[in-house]
Amino acid sequence: MKKVKKTQETENPGAGWDCPFQDLQIKIVEPPPPPPPVSKPAKEKSSLSAEDLELLKAFSGGGELPELPDAEAVSRPVARGYQLRFALQRKGKGGKTVTLVQGLKALDIPEQMNICSEIRTALGIGARFLEGILELQGDQRARAAKWFTDKGFPCL
Question: Does 30 reside within a domain?
Fold first, then answer.
């Protein structure tokens, strides 16, 4: 039987190799305890007026919200006196026909979005507002004019 000479390498393989993680130690750091709760000072006399206190109560959730108008009343701008014009355009759209509805520039953005979504579902077409002009996909002059007159808009 041969006796094997024990060397440093047989006792600790890889001892001659420099391990970059050799000096790293895992340290577990516990988070600091939460701060103690702050006690509220006794209620002081408010320097706000009665109107300010009422507004503060209304806007802080303590008061009730006022009644909002119906969505139907907001979405029908009949009394504004719009004059709508319908035009057809083929240039600049890759040869596709687009119906332009002009005369809705005075509408604000939520009203434009509402009209756009309603006409999309009613006519089953694509629609968008671009600089106050409603663009409808395809030749939709007759169908769009009928839809707008049903909604109370005067058409030319």
Answer: no
